[in-house]
Structure prediction request, 488 residues.
Amino acid sequence: MSGLVMPKPDDATMRRRAEIVADMRIIVPGEGVVDATNEMRAFESDGLTAYRQLPLVVVLPETVAQVSRVLKYCNDRNIRVVPRGSGTSLSGGALPLEDAVLLVMSRFNRILAIDYPDRIVVAQPGVTNLGITIAVEQEGFYYAPDPSSQIACSIGGNVAENSGGVHCLKYGLTAMNGEVVRLGGNHLDSEGYDLLGVMTGSEGLLGVVTEVTVRILKKPETARALLIGFPTSEQGGQCVADIIGAGIIPGGMEMMDRPAIHAAEDFVHAGYPLDVEALLIVELDGPGVEVDHLIGLIEAIAYRNGSTTCRISQSEQERLSFWAGRKAAFPAVGRISPDYYCMDGTIPRKELPRVLAGMRELSGKYGLGVANVFHAGDGNLHPLILYDANVPGELDKAESFGADILRLCVKVGGVLTGEHGVGVEKRDLMPEMFDQIDLDQQMRVKCAFDPNHLLNPGKVFPQLRRCAELGRMHVHRGQVAFPDIPRF
Ligand SMILES: Cc1cc2nc3c(=O)[nH]c(=O)nc-3n(C[C@H](O)[C@H](O)[C@H](O)COP(=O)(O)OP(=O)(O)OC[C@H]3O[C@@H](n4cnc5c(N)ncnc54)[C@H](O)[C@@H]3O)c2cc1C
Prediction:
């Protein structure tokens, strides 16, 4: 990624910058346009901070009509647009382009409707994930998908990244040509193709989300957690598979390996056992009787899988202390290494031991440590690769190590991402998972929404790909087809 190739800036757009900025000020009057270099610095990267780029101009619209006009203006003049929510993406999805308008949705920060009987909230896309729960918690409701970044990340960004298991979404969006489209509504199903499914996780490549309707849930009566330690990660992994296999769907099921356990314990003193290779936190929520019954079942499954410790929270304080270490795992790892690189891949649960063993091998090959934190219940891995950015070549090594981990995930039947998206980070690994036909088909969907390839180019798709020729490049006697198309 440090050698990442991005689309070549369009000279004509760069030459017209002053005119474009002036036109943006007409469309979004007031303080909605930022063009001074020092002020645009705040937007030059997202959560993938190894990579930075100043945009052409930053535009912060406040109304759907403004979004629509900005997109139409850019579409008519062949100007690229990068949508951005709160900029917490860990895969570089919101990374600006030098010749693109950065369309920041953070001023869309209002909750538009709360409907308790239908259990839905309609929000503007810049509302934070946590902001939705805060708006309804006094009535005993909450919004379930909860990425760790929920205090900052926007609900529009969550839709674009399909974050934290977002589901039951219905939203409105604005397509690249400025058309306002409503997909879904308060009802659970909608007529026609499932365009909602197409938009969810589309990483800002198909349209700009301008309104989101989410389903809220009643807060569970009880929540209790188990802290279970295993002498090997194989046993921990098998326990996870057996819990799911028994038909139990816990409210949360997270696993940490030895380096992560030690780092977390040193940091927050959560009372974690230090003599285990794998630690599982399983939370059960619902009516008290059901929770007690399931705790008994899980205890038995853990015992059958050779657990050496099993603690059950006896109070809310103890439940929170079980989670304290897990929630602090990332900053805790930050204390044991100058830098770390957080990967994100998903595997079939039963492959956990094999992938962990493979990661240990790769760790030896690259000479870099790795600590593991998993959303074990859904097989989503977050290996944290430890490196020192001040040592020449270590960032490159960390990136190659990360790419090899993702290749391993795909090899065992998994996928390149669990929740952080493809962005620029995993773009060039897409052919590991998809063949040419798959990628062409995905590009055809992109073309249906954005035929001029102006929305968030350089992200997700691995190589020269544009609607005109779907990326296939046959070079005959040095004559490149479509010479006008930027190569990236
Ligand atoms: C500390 C930390 C912890 C994290 N933990 C988790 C986690 O537990 N689970 C998880 O899933 N993710 C996690 N993330 C990643 C990140 O928070 C999510 O991907 C989040 O959904 C991004 O939202 P955002 O508003 O910051 O979007 P941005 O970073 O601004 O953008 C992300 C992508 O969405 C597109 N986009 C943003 N808004 C819109 C819009 N309105 N319309 C169309 N496209 C749009 C952008 O073009 C970009 O491709 C974490 C990040 C950090 C920094």
